[in-house]
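Hi R.,

Here's the chain you asked about this morning:
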Amino acid sequence: MVIVLLPLSMALSAQNLQGAEAMDWAKSNVDRLVGHYLSVSGNKLDPDEMRKELSEIGYDGSNVVFYRDAERYLVAEAYDRMLKKAYKDNKRSVIILTGPGASGKSTATKTLDYSNEGLLYDGAFNSYSSLKSAVDRAYAAGMTKVSVIAVYNDILSCFKNSVERGKRSGRYLGVGYLSNAYKRNAGKLAKLHNEYPEIDITGIDNSHNNGGRRVDLDQILKWDFSIDNETMNRILVFLLHKIDEGDISPYYYRTVGGDTADLEDLDDFGQSLADELARRVKDAQSKPNGKLPK
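And here is the predicted structure, written out as tokens:
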């Protein structure tokens, strides 16, 4: 009998780890995972790209929720190492790119030249606490200049963008997650300006996917991150319409519409739409592999 020993990487790829198990695995493999990411990322830190390092334990773009903690751990480790490298290379500047999910950050800043910066941190930073933490860690690592580029878009356009991206890559954002994260941006930049007046904040208004229009601080501080019932209902109608058209595979129903219970303060019409989405998700999950017959 011949016994074949598989390489470690192949053995790991057979695992399907989520949640706490994914976090434990990330900690055990942190040097290898972060080292690989840094070898190809240049001076840009992108959590979405870092998350791909978890593909060998089951991350496939549709199940982000099960890998967020492991991703955040790896991103934190990478950020520290990139800051140390920037300091060693005598590059003491950091650009932090922030904005709601699927707001068009990459598109609006695609002409940005950050090659001479210490690093570019491309994250959502939906809460002030997460943004403040990134700033504080940069200063603690010896960075002398921190700049922030903030991108804005309306929530309906953000959600439409997330669906289009999901169709291309399988990486959808849940309607509940995106909506609640969007609202947490309220007041974030005003707090940043008040606490760190030395930080230059560049605003790019990408409302309705207009390609990105640069705005001043006064306009930045007027950005509205509230979501009224009419807008929320339009989002839910749009999602159901995309499902009816077959633009979203039943395999992804749970990812994009399975967190409707997290939606807050729906009116009666909105609740009926959320209930219908929940029914579609439940029905899809009852079919083999979450796929409905065409």
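One quick note: The longest strand covers residues 145-152.

Cheers,
M.
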